[in-house]
Amino acid sequence: MSNQLEKVKELIELRAQARLGGGEKAIEKQHAKGKYTARERIAQLLDEGSFEEMDMFVEHRCTNFGQEKKHFLGDGVVTGYGTIEGRLVYVFAQDFTVFGGSLSETMAQKICKVMDMAMKMGAPCIGINDSGGARIQEGINALAGYAEIFQRNIMASGVIPQISGIFGPCAGGAVYSPALTDFTLMTEGTSYMFLTGPKVVKTVTGEDVSQEDLGGASVHANKSGVTHFTAANGEEGLSIIRKLLSYIPQNNLEEAPIVNCTDPIDRLEDSLNDIIPDSPNKPYDMYEVIGAIVDNGEFLEVQKDYAKNIIIGFARFNGQSVGVVANQPKFLAGVLDSNASRKAARFVRFCDAFNIPLVTLVDVPGFLPGTGQEYNGVILHGAKLLYAYGEATVPKVTVTLRKSYGGSHIVMSCKQLRGDMNYAWPTAEIAVMGGAGAVEVLYAKEAKEAADPVAFVAEKEAEYTKLFANPYNAAKYGYIDDVIEPRNTRFRIIRALQQLQTKKLTNPAKKHGNIPL
Ligand code: HXC
Fold it and tell me: Domain CoA carboxyltransferase N-terminal spans what residues (predicted)?
């Protein structure tokens, strides 16, 4: 064998060794937990055969606690680039088979390298987390590595899309990288995220809580809102990430890909002419409206189990990607509260950062009153959504279906927050408040003194409703651009979005604003 052939053979052997990560036993252990390895995950995520691995021969440099005797090629993370639907993406996947995927100085350097390249190339960066946290043997160097990653997460925010898949443990300060990225996905039963684990919780507070109840996928999907998506398993999770990327541009200077639209743009949806119940207190399902108007009824919902009174997600109109924000009358009557406001605000800001037009469907009775909300800072949280809409310069199309009262009317992308096209259905009620509340404020004294208080209140309510519970009062002032037939909503939105394609609007130059946090 020639010298060169010897060297090629050695390379092939080293590559094979690197691909084994922590070794066959550790891989078996990973599989036994119902989890895939880092390389298997990358293969499922990317277009077949597109992955180009980098830094396969990187090894840690730690000599503490006998680490100098334990080395694995690649050092616990697989990094590189590839394509999803033919579009460039950068990826890193922590390899739990090597020191439990724990983060070393060199692992951090590998991750930072792909993040830097993603920024340079203007391509999304996807991180797959499965790690025991900071590599304990490396001490401060591991912490410094995390900080380097966080700093890059922050600099990349609003420049390239960043997506985190949590496919195993993600604990301690490590959770802050996913939290800084745009979207987080967790797998059910196999992933968890918490700042402090159950043992520390027990010691400090005395609370007994399982790993799953403290930071499992369903907790973060339902209660905290930390995760945007959950998946039954790794394969489903990776396919959700692929789908999500189809709605998103490569970076903040590009537009989302246009998809060939097979759904007629002028499709009339007769059911919408009769979807609003006669009683203002009766709900209907906003999902039916969304499904009826978007291309082929396809909607990728974000944070679907959190603050269900507001719906957010991606859809397309005539092949163009949009962010949909919609009140859900079926849940808490579609009221805005702290969680709903925070949820929608972050989504609006994501869409604005990445040139994705916003379509807002309004049916909101107001903000949820009470000490619970006030003590929780609903003023600040509501202001976040207000700020987000007011700051957004992407095309904004708003359709008011029914209620749009008071502050919540303003917050939900009204004309004065630079809404581009504001439509209303004939059933819209755009007013300071609902009839019952208004009469109570205006006529409390008179009602008490009236011969027949019930009839008096009913009469005043009818008067108020006639005057204000309609869209024409707002349309009279140009606050509503047109009152549209509900069945024609899809077509009118598409027309508006077509018109707005050349929209140019910039905010005043500033270092950054000071959004209420
Ligand atoms: C070094 C680690 C490690 C770590 C796991 N391993 N975590 N090595 N540093 N942080 C190693 C284990 O020693 C073991 O090595 C292998 O990975 C697999 O771990 P197991 O414990 O056998 O796996 P499992 O039973 O599945 O338990 C997983 C685990 C547990 C729950 C994650 O390993 C664990 O509790 N690890 C420590 C978690 C932790 O406290 N991390 C520090 C958090 S503080 P062998 O050789 O036996 O295969 C932190 C600060 C970040 O991260 C701050 C950022 C700002």
Answer: 4-260
